[in-house]
Amino acid sequence: MKQLYMLFTIVLMVWFNPVRALGERPDVTISSAPAWASKQSLPALPESLRKPLHYRLVDRQVSDAAGVTAVSHNRFVFTDAAGVQEGSTVRVRFNPAYQQLVFHNVTVWRDGKAVYQLAAQDIKVINAEEDQKNNMYLGLFDALILLQDIRVGDELDYSYSLSGSNPVLGERFSYFDNLGWGVAVDLLSFKLTLPDDKQVAHKVFGNLNTQVQHQQSEGTQTYTVKVENSIAHTVENELPGWFSPFPYIQFTEFNSWLEVQSWAAELFKVKTEHSPELTAYINELKALPKQQAIEQAITFVQDEIRYLGLELGVNSHQPNMPHQVFEKRFGDCKDKTLLLNTLLRALDVDAQPALVSTDKRAYISEYLPTHSAFNHVITHFTLDGEAYWVDPTINYQGSRLSSLHQPDYGSALLVDSQSDALTEVNIKPARHGIDINEMIVAPDYVSPVQWRIESQYYGWQAERLRYQLASSQKKVFQEHSLNYYAQFYPGVQVKTPITFSDNRRDNVITVVESYWVPDFWQPGENGAAEFYLSAGNVSQYVKLPQTVRRKQPLAKAYPLSLSQRVTLLMPADVDFSALAYQKSFADPYVQIDSAMEYDRRRVTFHARYEALQEFVPVEAVPAHLSKIKQANKYSGFGGTVMEVETNPNYTLFQDFIQQLENKTKMKFVGESL
């Protein structure tokens, strides 16, 4: 159920024909549009057309009178070569397990004459499983019409319908649709046709001025929206997942979240007996102390049951039985959740499924009640009065309950709660970030420095690193690190191999690296030596976004706390104390600190970054980015040591290096000394 193809929430998955969904070419037909689908009157073309495509019409009409059918009608003009390149393929994605795709019209107009009309042999159907790398299989196909001889000035008009409904979702109607796009449209229209006895509620998001017309006549009712000269809606970068840049409309037949909960509770009932193998494993857990058994059950489901989503037919929402998942050793979020809940309940733990939205999170409360609001399910349980939210699909988490990273999904619908309200996902505070301590030892101003880096990863940062280490060899990690550091010091060489220490109980990983850096010192004027201490891990978050003048909120990586301390042990006491400083840049969204201090031969630069919220609202963005810009000026510290060539030790060591290189015919990098 996780990562479903969504139209702002979730595409409704339905009944499954296994042969067709696993590869048999589905049938796509051509016929006239349904009688209930009305034709739209187009305004005349304006004198000035938009490039590269001028959209005249985007029309969507949906009927639930005899099963759900959606008719789409689009018309646009090719206004330059880029538009011809972009728009000369008609592509419609569908799921033949439950949907029937019918083309009604594909016509190319040139100078008022139809120069192309669709023929059955022009329809190509290809597999469209794009999420296989994430072990998600949805049974999707694309119907393609590759238009030929398209020229600037041609006009394409095409329409099609998708029919189908999902028994697992019941008969309650739920639907979302766009009321705006990333392109301007002369006429954007939407119409919903329902039986007159079907009671639905609707809500518009993103444009409160949108007028929804409701009419009833002769046993049917319609909801209609028309937007003339619809503007192009900008999609800015770094948006929070819950934010939609497009206006949209929701329809739902559910009257309360309790009705949604009743629908979900039926899906998650365990309707079979446990297998002997599952029963034996439960008995093993019962023999352990209770908390240890709980921790072991969570780790087992997260790590030993691999994630594999066969989102086909009823299994888009209905989980497989626990004994099946236990024996096959794979499942998606709902399968893994039901298995974990079964194990926890056998340990007398009150566990239940919790439906969540990984995108909308807490903003799901803005929706009218609907089962279409959710795209993920996790486990909720209480132990000794404390609530826990566990995502069984996350691998390599901390193994102790107190150190377990609990994702903050904002709001959840507890399946077994018998409540008419969403539940706030209260997550206990925890450290999620990286602490980096670097020591650079410079014996003089010419030989390679020794560079030691010790990094400690906490929370979800530790879990991400743990997964990376399990997915690749450590030498690959070492090579990636070396290439990254070579961007700053091209001559960097490994002094001792990288080491990893994983304290999984506390969810902390310690990484120790050691390098030689022959090009640390840079020559300056008049025999000076220059250096620069950088907190690169912190500074990557202290930068302006691609879109600075924003009309949309700015997302922040959250929760996240970073600290990076770089200490240079100088060859001699060169007093930098006059340049010492402490700076702090804070607002309600981030805390950024920067400091330089000098103590005898030690120059220390320290940078710290902490995200305080997951996004910055539009009205606060200018002031926030001003803080970021100021803080960016203090993302490192550079210093200069004057006239180092007058130092006798410098001259002696330089002569020694020259003699060594002459004898060995090799460039000195310091590792042999």
Automatic annotation (TrEMBL):
Annotated Transglutaminase-like domain residues: 325-394
InterPro entries the record matches: DUF3857, Papain-like_cys_pep_sf, Transglutaminase-like
Name of the molecule in the record: DUF3857 domain-containing protein
Organism of provenance: Pseudoalteromonas viridis
